[in-house]
Each structure stands twice: as C-alpha cells, then as structure tokens.
Amino acid sequence: MAMKKIALHWQILIALCLAVVTGASLDQTFSLFGVTFLSVLTFFGTLFLNALKMLIVPLVMASIITGMMSLNADTLGRLGAKTVSYYAVTSLVAILIGLFFVNLFQPGIIDGEPARHVIGLSSDTDDVVSRVGDKGASDIAEVLLRMVPPNIVTAAANGQMLGLIFFSLIFGFFVSKLKGSVAQIHKDFWQGLLDIMMMMTDLIMRFAPLGVYALVTKVILISGVDAFEPLAIFFGAVIIALATHLLIFLPLILRYIAKVSPAKHFKAMLPALLTAFSTSSSSATLPITMDCVENRSGVSNQVAGFTLPLGATINMDGTALYECVAAMFIAQAYGLTLDVTTQFTIVLVALLTSIGVAGIPSASLVAITIILSAIGLPLEGIGLILVVDRVLDMCRTSVNVFSDSCAAVTIARLEGEKTLLLK
To answer: Is domain 8-414 annotated with CATH 3.30.70.270?
Structure first.
C-alpha cells in the first residue's frame, strides 16, 4: 500500500520546528568541510526568495488583467469600494487593538521608570537613521506619483507594485472593450499566461519546506535567544495584539460577514501563512497566497486577482499595529506624557503610513520615524526595537497576508460567490 503524502502545510510546519531546534543548537561559526552552515542557509534561503519574486510581475499582471477582462465599470467600482473599505476598517481596528495592549502592558515602563536607561540604545541606531535618511510625512504624497510610473518596465524591474497594479487595471479594463477575434486572442493569451504562472507557483511551493527551514534557521542563528530578554514585555505585547487580530477579529469577519468557516480558511491558508512568516514579505508570498485563495478557498480569479495584489501593496494590518505599538513603546521609554491627543496622532499617522509608505525600502522603520517625528521624539528611539524587529516582522507579515486573504473571501461572498469554505 502506497504511503500517503504529507500535506504541504505539515511539511512546512515540520521544517519550521526543525529550524528552531537547529538554530538553538548551533552557532554562527559552525562549519563543515570549510563551508559555514550559515552561508549554506543564506544560499538556499535567497534561492527560494528569488524564485518567489521571479513570479510576482507576470503573475500580478496576468491575474489583474484576466480579472479585469470580465468586469464592467459598475462591477469595478463596486469591487474597488468594497476592497478599499475593508482595508481601511481592518487596518484601523488593528491599530486600536495594538493601542489597547500597549497601554495595558506599558512595556516602556520598568519598575515605574522609563525603560530607555534600563534597556540602552542599540549600537545599530546610526545605521538605521542613515537607511531611513530624510524620509518624512511628505513621502506619503509620493504614492500618487508611484502609481503612475513613467516607465512600466523600470517600475516592474524595481518592484514598484503600485505602478504595476495601476497599469494592469487600466490595461485589463480596455482589453474588455476590444471586439471580435482580437479580443479573443488577448483573452486566450492572458488566461494562458495566468495558468502557466499558477503551475510554476505549484512547482516552487514543493520546495517551500526547504526554503522555510533555511530562512528561519538563519534568523535564529543570527538573533539568538538571549537578545529578547530585555524586550520581552514589548515583544509579548506585539505578539498578543497580533494574535488577537489574527485569531479573533478576522475570524469574526469571516463568520458573520462572509458567513464562511474560519477554521476551513485557516487550513486553506496555512502554506501561505507559513511562507509569509519565513520570508517576511507579503509581495514575495503573493504567488502562494493567490494559489491558496483560488485553489484551496475557492475564490474566483476575478475577485482574487483584484484584491490580493492590491492588498499585498497597501493592506498592512500587522504592520500598522506594530507601528502603533512600537511608537507608543518608544514614547513610554522616553517618558513622554501620552495624552489622548498624542495617542490619536499616533493612530492617525500609523493608519496613513501603513498605506502610504508600503513601497519604500525599510517600510516599517520609515513609518515609525514619521510617527516619532509627528509626536516630537528623536529618531534614535528606533534603536530600542531593532533587536526584536526581524522576528516581529515575520509575525506581522503573516497577519498582513491573512488579512488580504480574508478580504478576497469576504468580497467574493458579498459578490454572491459560492466558495469552498461554506459551513
């Protein structure tokens, strides 16, 4: 009797557990035949990430254009309004959840004193400030300029997703206006390209356990466990807030608005969630997210192709929550009086930056500097959170991806689709 194949999400979960054990057992200097284990992990982790990123541009274009070909102006307007409304509401709720828990735990206060003197600033602070540069709130306005790139090929090469999405939306809409044989040729081409990209995604997903193992083991080897102790309360506050949004708020949307089974959707999304956790990139995980939402949750390409690429670019629930908690933590650590006005400022700026700064490198760090500037704190405060930022980045990316998938399912159900998640 043939042995039953282990499901992909279990393979990835096993790889994740092995990564934790390996990372905790070895150190960075471990080598075999003169080759360090860390360099091997870096090679395979980068290879897996590159393979995923290789799919993004053709997959996003084919998916959006294929979805747009069957939409009319009324349907597009309705889908757009529902998608943007969902993203705005869930991001705002995520920020408020973060605000609640950071006020509850007050990680920036230790024994009644601001934590800055207890924790000390990271030595990497200057490096962060130089990476962030002179970014400020004015960068949010550049979103509109990034939306209309002067060269679509350059935008695609540089990973400027917003411009690529905008071009694909317009292109797909006008493809739907074509008539006769020319229209059919275009529809067959883009549908064929989408089918090919999904098959390539399936192939790369087979190597996901190896990629996950390499990426996570590398993080644990470099970060270690001891570094987390001084920031344990901050780390815990972020994790609990993210878990509340992931395990309580989003499932409530699935059950009472989409009227589907949250448990079924969690199971369907496990490969994407574990990949998001390992890669820390919503964009890199997008091919797997689309595969899970369409093939495992049963959402049409018309809805998934519109909501998911857009969500991977502007919907950052986990990031928005983290920005709020981090800014509040730094404010507490510096002994800043956090009145209602200050907290409202943090909430508002976190909401705007989670959307507007998504396309900038080191997006979360840039967003936090904008918030710190808005409430009058020095940029060196970022040094307080650098030690745990990488691991928390993995966690908040998983929340971002799950929220995107919930948007696709919810909007599909509101559009009258029958998904595979019905109770």
So the answer is: no
